[in-house]
Amino acid sequence: MKKIKNLFLILIALAFIAIPMLASAQDETTSAADYANSSSAGASNPMLGRLTKIGALGGYNTTGNVSVSDIVGIAIRMVITLLGLVFIVLIILAGFKWMRAEGNEEEIKKANRTIKESIIGLVITLSAWTIWSFVFEKLILGQ
User: Fold this and answer.
1) 134 and 107 in a common domain
2) Which of 25, 88, 135, 136 has the smallest number of Cβ neighbours within 10 A?
3) How does pLDDT run along the chain (143 residues), one tens digit per residue?
4) Within this chain, do residues 79 and 51 fall inside the same structural domain, yes or no?
C-alpha cells in the first residue's frame, strides 16, 4: 500500500510539473498567425523562436555555429561550477555536524576533517579554473 501511495504522489508531482508545459500561452504582441506566417528558424516551434530571440538579445550565439572549444569550455565551466556547489554543501554539512556534536571530540574531529578536505578541494577546483582560464584565453583564443 505504501508503494502505491508513493507512486501516486510521484505522479501528482509530475503532473504539476508537466501541466504548465502543455499550456500554449502567448505574449500579447505575437499571435499564432504571426508565428504561422513567420519565416524565421523558430516558425515551426514558437518556443524555440522566442528562446532564440532572447538569446540573441542577451548577446549569445544563436546561429548554431559552435566550435569544439566552445563546447569544451562550457562543459568545463559546468563541472567547475558543480564542484563549487559540492564545496558549499560539504561546508554546510560539516558545520551542522560540528554544531550537533554536543562536545563529542570524535564528531568535532570528523567535522574539522571534512572542512579541511573540502577547502583543499576548493583550492584544487580554483586552481583548475585558473589553469583552464589561462589555456582557453591565451592558447585557444590567442588573446
Assistant:
1) yes
2) 25
3) 677 777 777 878 777 776 666 555 555 555 544 544 444 444 567 777 787 888 788 777 777 676 777 777 778 888 888 888 889 999 999 999 999 998 899 999 999 999 999 999 889 888 888 888 888 777 766 66
4) no
What is the spatial distance between Cα 78 and Cα 91, in angstroms, rounded to a whole number? 20
pTM of the entire predicted model: 0.51
In a domain, 46, yes or no: yes
Q: Is 73 in the same domain as 123?
A: yes
Q: What count of other Cβ atoms lies within 10 Å of the Cβ of residue 80? A: 16
Residue after which a domain boundary falls, among 36, 57, 78: 57
Domain of residue 45, residue span: 2-57
Query: Please, which residues have CB within 8 angstroms of residue 71's CB and are 6 or more apart in sequence?
Result: none
Distance CA 77, CA 23 (A): 33
SS3 32: helix
Structural domain contains residue 18: yes
**DSSP secondary structure of 33-71:** HHHHH--STTSS-HHHHHHHHHHHHTT---SS---HHHH
